[in-house]
Amino acid sequence: MTYKIALYGFGSFPVVYRHLIEAAQAEHSPVGFCLILTAPNWRDVVRGVLPEEDVLDVFRELPRKPVGGDPALLSGYCGSLAEDLAALKRAYRKRTGAWLHARGIDFYCLYKNFLARRGATHLLMSNIESPDAKIAVAAAQELGVGIMAPMDLRNLSGSYFSIDSYETPPAYATVTSEARARAAEIIRDFRRQALPARNLPSDIDIARDDLTLLETYMPRFDTRAKRFVAVVLERPDMFDREVVRVSLMRNFGLVRNTIRGVRRWHNEKRYDIDQVGMLPRRFIYFPLQYTPEASINVPAPFFVDQFRVIDALRFAMPSDCTLVVKEHPACVEMRPHSFMQRVRKLPDVEVAKATMASNDLVKQAVVTVTVTGTAAFEAFLLGQPALALGRGLSAWMLGGVTSLGDIRSSIEAVIARPVPDQFVVDQVAKLINVRYPFFFATAHMAGEPMLRRGNIERFWAAIVDHLERERTAIQRAI
Question: Which of 105, 336, 368, 381 is buried most deeply by CB count within 10 Å?
Answer without folding.
Answer: 368
